[in-house]
Amino acid sequence: DVVLTQTPPTLSATIGQSVSISCRSSQSLLHSNGNTYLHWLLQRPGQSPQLLIYLVSRLESGVPNRFSGSGSGTDFTLKISGVEAEDLGVYYCVQGTHALTFGSGTKLEIK
Amino acid sequence: EVQLVESGGGLVKPGSSLKLSCVASGFTFSSYGMHWIRQAPKKGLEWIALIYYDSSNKYYADSVKGRFTISRDNSKNTLYLEMNSLRSEDTAMYYCAKTARYWGQGVMVTVSS
């Protein structure tokens, strides 16, 4: 089974600060069809998760462009360039190359 | 607009059964695989089951294998999760999802004596 190791578990940021979250997979997420099914979700308090980034680096419609994703193979990163108050919540990486697996989450707090 | 609406949750005793439903709209339900994902209180997300668009394949997490059954009725645009031999550790919010993009609002299942 694929294991996604997500770090750090918590992040405390000031408004305007840039932060990064790492997601490392126990095996390559490159599918035989050439796609890498690594996505990033944000779960705000009391809400269902929402998709931010799909296929490593593609910005979901309606998501601010301060969010960006990068990586390949087994190592992936979500970057928020200029945190805003509405960004607080828990961020999850999720892979869909081999069934579905979630990272353990990163809680973003606003200082 | 894609909508997924779960129902059927509640408070049940250990060892009992419960069946969740997820009604889908806004897309061609019969063309897509569907997932059930759960989240225990204050915990992370756990994928628990996947069913192919035509029910030809079903996959389960080890934590629920042999106790939970995923199914679907494409004529009713509805996804199901039948849960048997429920345990306290099954207490969670249960979400249905179409890929990682579309999620329902979730339904709470509490297993307690």
What topology does this entry show?
The complex is a heterodimer of chains A (111) and B (113).
Chain A (H helix, E strand, L loop, with lengths): L3 E4 L2 E4 L5 E7 L12 E6 L6 E5 L3 E2 L7 E6 L2 E6 L8 E7 L5 E2 L3 E5 L1
Parallel strand pairs in A: 2-11
Antiparallel strand pairs in A: 1-3, 3-8, 4-5, 4-9, 5-6, 7-8, 9-10, 9-11
Chain B lengths: L2 E5 L2 E3 L5 E8 L8 E6 L5 E7 L6 E3 L7 E6 L4 E6 L8 E7 L3 E2 L3 E5 L2
Parallel strand pairs in B: 2-11
Antiparallel strand pairs in B: 1-3, 3-8, 4-5, 4-9, 5-6, 7-8, 9-10, 9-11
Structure characterization notes:
The complex is a heterodimer of chains A (111) and B (113). Chain A has 111 residues and is mostly beta strands. Chain A is built from no helices and eleven strands. In chain A, strands 2, 4, 5, 6, 9, 10 and 11 form a seven-stranded mixed beta sheet that branches. In chain A, strands 1-3-8-7 form a four-stranded antiparallel beta sheet, with no helix packed on it. Chain B has 113 residues and is an all-beta fold. Chain B is globular and about 40 Å long. In chain B, strands 2, 4, 5, 6, 9, 10 and 11 form a seven-stranded mixed beta sheet that branches. A four-stranded antiparallel beta sheet of chain B has the order 1-3-8-7, with no helix packed on it. In chain B, β4 and β5 form a beta hairpin. Classes of the chains: A mainly beta (111), B mainly beta (113).
Give a quick set of tags describing it:
heterodimer; A: 111 residues; mainly beta; seven-stranded mixed beta sheet; four-stranded antiparallel beta sheet; 0% helix; globular; B: 113 residues; 11 strands
Would you tell me the overall average pLDDT of chain B? 97
Strands of chain B, total number: 11
Structural class by helix and strand composition of chain B: mainly beta
| Class based on secondary structure composition and strand pairing of chain A | mainly beta
How does the overall form of chain B come out from the CA principal axes? globular
Residue fraction in strands of chain B: over 45%
Average per-residue pLDDT of chain A, rounded, comes to: 96
N- to C-terminal distance of chain B: 40 Å
- Strand fraction band of chain A? over 45%
Q: Please describe the biggest sheet of chain A, giving its number of strands, its sense, and whether it closes into a barrel.
A: 7 strands, mixed
Major β-sheet profile of chain B: 7 strands, mixed
Largest interface: A-B, 20 and 16 residues
Unreliable sequence segments of chain A = none
Helix-strand pattern of chain B: EEEEEEEEEEE
Helix content percent band of chain A: under 10%
Give the overall shape of chain A, derived from the CA principal axes: globular
